[in-house]
Write a structure and sequence with these properties.
The complex is a heterodimer of chains A (446) and B (298). Chain A is an alpha+beta fold and 446 residues long. Chain A contains 13 helices and 9 strands. Chain A is elongated, with a radius of gyration of 34 Å. Chain B has 298 residues and is an all-alpha fold. The chains are: A alpha+beta (446), B mainly alpha (298).
């Protein structure tokens, strides 16, 4: 069961003592009632669990005892190691985030009139299959900011702050002594006062050229100044590369940098409507110059959320989106049962809301928070489908978790011995919770 | 929403008369709270909305622009994806399989668990407590622990690749939680009621079917809904044992191998898969929440 199976102390109204057995012992009656359940549990749960334990120590074909060989082979595989690491990340992050987030959302939505609506909205994804959640987030996580909503929102922020270059796709035209690199378009030509330099660029669409662009003109040397021209080295019909010709427009708004002999930028200016810029009085040279990289900035290209580097945090976010409703509902029900008088009394005594939350709400809610935390821990250990669905083929190894690795090893790789060993890893991880459940159950029943 | 939301609604804090200044002060501090909660609400709504719109778009449009661009030019929406989906025989067979798996396994889990829970709660037999402890222990056993031997067993019995394999496995792994939940609920039925029935000469079966089952109806309803959503949404069990009788989830997952070109099947398929659980959720929200709390809260 995906939900709520962890707390074994659920009790029904009123009953505190163990039910007596009216009529004494009647094993045959009991057997009749229990039989279907015992057959199914025996054949499809208990026997398979025992058999998986056995298989993990056996050769897959001969079923001879081979000791820990399957475990050794499993731990020799990169996919299993990655899966174990990822499961560890999931277990460390997710139960805490969901429990903490659930507490915050539950407490806050109690304070507004539309709190119920918020709770329903948060809860709704719980009814949806992991498959649909996976599809939903595949759509949200598309990398291209014009297609993926997450990147579109981030891009809107980033591009407002940083801005996009005016000519993101421009390149250097032929026949020029220019190099295009991370610094921009760099000229090696040594410049002294009175010199000129030209930058011919191509791969600029008509839309990218501002409407106020004018015919470019070959620069004339100015006494004591350095003049640079950036122009679109293209006209209908072609023309000669590297030469400023009739019909070729100057490129306005191009940032041009002037560098001293140390390679430091000493001045930056942007071109006018004819594509020219003049650095007046630069002082003693020699200088070099370049078209700044910012002109070619392509703007925000989007994070690759589902690429191997980010895929696990991305799927974790999708899982929290789908699973936090459980925490919100269970915690909200707990909050509803808190003694109102106590909270009111504290407020009357001058406690701030934060103090009430920290000193009263959280301690009183601790048992329920614990239940949510443990339930989420089990669910996270068993996590399979959302990873299998959300991770694209290229990232599935990087995103893999133990439950998924077990399935892929066994049913895609047909390596049942190793698969059984991986299943045992999973089993070992749930055993502490099983023990906790059993102890709590015995305590509550006693 | 008020009628369906009662399960989730918390207690209403009685409105008290308070000084205007206090109310004003509170309203001012509520500004950030409202902004935060509305952002949270949007964050939880927008992704599903994105799928809904995407399911009405052509693959070429999907490759070209984000779904939100539709808001400015709604003419680009198309029903083609849904038409193709309904015309796609294997997808429709998958939907049928999903129904054929989810309905019987939910009913059978409830029936079989109710029988067992009655024995655990009200029939004396040696080893009862030990056996119930085993059920409690099985609550957290991962499915993965049983997949390999179970598939071998299904092969031997010849039901591998039929819905019966999927149903049987769903029931078996649904039983521990179901027995646990129902046993606790049945044990809360007043003892006097059962004693009286016994004195009147009712058989165990009569007590079970005429007394315990009707009284246990709230828990049974919760359990049924849980099991139904669980089996309807399942991917893992169907993928492992379904073979030719795979449920819709498995077929959609297969389409995802060519994600970009098949988006016009995947998105409507994912929507189709969501409709039934969402309808169940809104119709029976109260039972859903009760079941959740019965399992989770002291």
């Amino acid at each position: 069961m995906a939900v709520a199976s962890s707390d074994v102390s659920a009790k029904s109204k009123g009953r505190r003592s163990r039910p007596k057995r009216p009529g004494g012992r009647r094993p045959l009656v009991a057997l009749a009632f229990l039989l279907p359940a015992l057959i199914l549990l025996g054949a499809l749960v208990v026997y398979p669990v025992v058999d998986t334990v056995a298989q993990s120590f056996q050769d897959q074909d001969t079923r001879q005892f081979i000791g820990l060989e399957n475990y050794r082979r499993a731990l020799d595989r990169d996919t299993t190691i990655t899966a174990l690491k990822n499961t560890l990340i999931w277990v460390i992050l997710v139960p805490g985030l969901i429990t903490g987030g659930g507490l915050i959302f539950a407490v806050l939505s109690e304070r507004v009139r539309y709190g119920t609506a918020i709770k329903v909205i948060l809860f709704m994804p719980m009814a949806i299959s992991a498959l649909s959640v996976g599809v939903i987030w595949r759509i949200m996580y598309e990398q291209d900011p014009s297609r993926g909503f997450v990147n579109a929102v981030i891009g809107a922020g980033v591009d407002t702050v940083k801005g996009e270059g005016a000519y993101p796709n421009a390149t250097v035209s032929a026949e020029q002594d220019l190099a295009q690199n991370a610094q921009g378009v760099v000229s090696d030509q040594e410049l002294n006062a009175g010199d000129t330099v030209t930058f011919g660029l191509v791969s600029i669409t008509d839309e990218e050229v501002p409407a106020d662009a004018e015919q470019a003109a070959a620069p004339e040397g100015n006494e004591g100044a350095i003049t640079a021209v950036a122009w679109r080295d293209f006209k209908p019909g072609g023309g000669t590369a590297g030469e400023i010709e009739d019909g070729e427009l100057g490129l306005p708004d191009v940032a041009i940098e002037l560098l001293n002999s140390e390679g430091e930028v000493i001045e930056t200016d942007t071109t006018g409507s004819d594509g020219s810029v003049t650095f007046e009085d630069p002082g003693g040279g020699p200088f070099t110059s370049r078209v700044a990289a910012s002109n070619f900035d392509e703007g925000f290209q989007g994070f690759a959320w589902l690429a191997p580097a980010l895929v696990t945090p991305s799927i974790i976010a999708a899982f929290i989106w789908g699973g936090i409703g459980f925490a919100v509902i269970v915690i909200a029900a707990g909050l509803a049962a808190l003694p109102r008088d106590l909270l009111e009394a504290a407020r009357t005594d001058g406690a701030t809301e934060w103090q009430v939350f920290r000193m009263i709400t959280v301690p009183l809610m601790a048992p329920i928070l614990g239940v949510v935390f443990i339930t989420m821990t089990i669910n996270v250990l068993k996590i399979f489908d959302i990873v299998y669905v959300t991770a694209p083929g290229a990232s599935i190894n990087a995103a893999s978790v133990v439950a998924l690795d077990m399935w892929r090893t066994s049913f895609q790789g047909r390596q049942f011995g190793i698969g059984a060993a991986i299943a045992i890893f999973l089993f070992l991880m749930v055993i502490p919770i099983m023990v906790l459940n059993l102890r709590r159950f015995r305590r509550d029943e006693a | 929403m008020s009628s369906t939301a009662e399960g989730i609604a918390g207690p209403r804090v009685a409105a008290k008369s308070e000084p205007v200044t206090a109310r004003l002060g509170r309203r001012l501090t509520r500004g950030p709270l409202n902004v935060f909660l509305i952002l949270v609400g949007l964050f939880w709504l927008i992704p599903s909305f994105g799928l809904l719109i995407s399911s009405f778009r052509a693959p070429a449009d999907y490759a070209e622009s984000g779904w939100w661009t539709v808001l400015s030019e709604p003419a680009a929406l198309t029903m083609d994806g849904y038409k193709n989906l309904i015309g796609n025989e294997s997808m429709m067979q998958g939907l049928m399989n999903t129904v054929k798996i989810a309905v019987p396994s939910s009913i059978l889990v409830v029936v079989i668990a109710a029988l067992a829970a009655y024995a655990f709660a009200w029939v004396g037999f040696r080893g009862r407590d030990a056996l119930f402890l085993l059920v409690v222990a099985l609550l957290v056993v991962p499915l993965q622990m049983a997949l390999i031997p179970a598939s071998r067993l299904f092969n031997v019995t010849g039901i591998f690749g039929t819905i019966w394999a999927v149903i049987a496995f769903h029931i078996a792994f649904g039983l521990p939680f179901a027995i646990f939940l129902l046993r606790n609920f049945f044990a809360g039925i007043p003892k006097d009621l059962l004693e009286a029935a016994r004195i009147d000469g009712a058989s165990e079966w009569q007590i079970f079917s005429r007394l315990v089952l009707p009284l246990g109806m709230p828990a049974i309803a919760s359990l049924f809904i849980f099991q139904f959503l669980w089996t309807w949404n399942d991917l893992l069990v169907g993928l492992t044992f379904g073979g030719e009788s795979s449920p819709l989830t498995v077929l959609i997952r297969q389409e995802m191998r060519q994600y970009g070109t098949n988006i016009d099947t995947i998105a409507p398929g994912a929507m189709l898969l969501m409709i039934v659980p969402l309808a169940v959720f809104f119709a029976f929200q109260r039972y859903f929440v009760q079941g959740l709390l019965a399992g989770a809260v002291k």
